[in-house]
């Protein structure tokens, strides 16, 4: 498969960065092709402009889609699957990735009228969450993230949808964290290998 990976983390020293590398290794070993949009690295402009807002909220229909937006849309159209990799920020993705959806999911591409987006074979979200799964479940936050990402943003734009949450990744207990993350890196590799 040809896989489009949208990666969003401000630091390359992060667990999320290492985890992406392992995932890509897995994809590579399984002979999948991939391309990566590293939103910080490419200095992606995540702020929707007034013109873009007016287009997306149907005030005006005469505003063209920006070139950097079309480029990301092209990457989707040329792929079979999409993967989002990011750390959880306030039960959401980092603002840059939220803004990516604001700008890339345009009308005529991702929603009415006449959406042209290709129905992808698979959409996978791989998240690093500081909180434990126990806490994310108790508060309903893990369900909320699934509803927003798989339900709202992907909806019927992919045939299969999945969210993997690597939980408890904060620095509270370094020894425990190290052991946990080593296991997660193996799982990230396997997710790529079995994609
Ligand atoms: C601004 C900010 C907001 C955060 N919000 C959450 C949150 O809502 N839920 C959560 O589980 N972790 C939250 N965290 C913790 C991060 O998810 C955690 O630091 C990250 O996943 C650790 O992985 P990394 O080493 O790759 O950054 C937040 C961190 C930051 C910096």
- Provide the helix percentage: 40-55%
Q: What amount of the residues lies in strands?
A: 15-25%
The overall strand count is 5
Name of the CATH architecture? 3-Layer(aba) Sandwich
Round the Cα radius of gyration to an integer and report it.
17 Å
Q: CATH top level? A: Alpha Beta
For this structure, the CATH topology is: Rossmann fold
Total number of domains? 1
**CATH homology-level superfamily:** Flavodoxin domain
Question: Could you describe the 3D structure shown?
Answer:
Helix 1 (15-29) links the parallel strand 1 (2-7) and strand 2. The chain has a single domain (2-193), classed as Flavodoxin domain (Rossmann fold, 3-Layer(aba) Sandwich). It is globular and about 55 Å long. 29% of the residues are buried. A five-stranded parallel sheet has the order 2-1-3-4-5, with helices on both faces. Helix content is 43%, strand content 19%. It has seven helices and five strands; from the N terminus they run βαβααβαβααβα. It has helices at 15-29, 50-56, 67-77, 95-104, 133-138, 141-154, 174-193, and strands at residues 2-7, 33-38, 81-87, 120-128, 158-166. By secondary structure, it is an alpha/beta fold. Helix 1 runs parallel beside helix 7 (174-193). The chain binds flavin mononucleotide (FMN). Flavin mononucleotide (FMN) is lined by residues 9, 14-16, 87-91, 128-131, 169-170. Flavin mononucleotide binds next to helix 1.
């Amino acid at each position: 498969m040809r896989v489009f990976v949208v990666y969003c983390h401000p630091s390359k020293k992060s667990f999320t960065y290492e985890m992406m590398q392992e995932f890509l290794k897995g994809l590579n070993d399984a002979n999948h092709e991939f391309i990566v949009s590293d939103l910080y690295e490419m200095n992606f402009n995540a702020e929707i402009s007034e013109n873009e807002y007016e287009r997306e909220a149907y005030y005006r229909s005469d505003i063209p889609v920006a070139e950097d937006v079309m480029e990301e849309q092209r990457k989707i159209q040329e792929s079979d699957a999409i993967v989002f990799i990011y750390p959880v920020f306030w039960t959401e993705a980092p603002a840059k990735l939220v803004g990516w959806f604001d700008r890339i999911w345009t009308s005529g591409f991702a929603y009415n009228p006449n959406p042209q987006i290709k129905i992808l074979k698979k959409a996978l979200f791989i998240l690093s969450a500081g909180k434990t799964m126990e806490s994310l479940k108790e508060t309903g936050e893990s369900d909320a993230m699934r509803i927003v990402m798989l339900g709202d943003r992907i909806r019927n734009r992919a045939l299969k949808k999945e969210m993997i949450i690597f939980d408890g990744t904060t620095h509270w207990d370094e020894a425990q964290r190290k052991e946990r993350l080593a296991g997660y890196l193996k799982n990230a590799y396997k997710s790529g290998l079995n994609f």
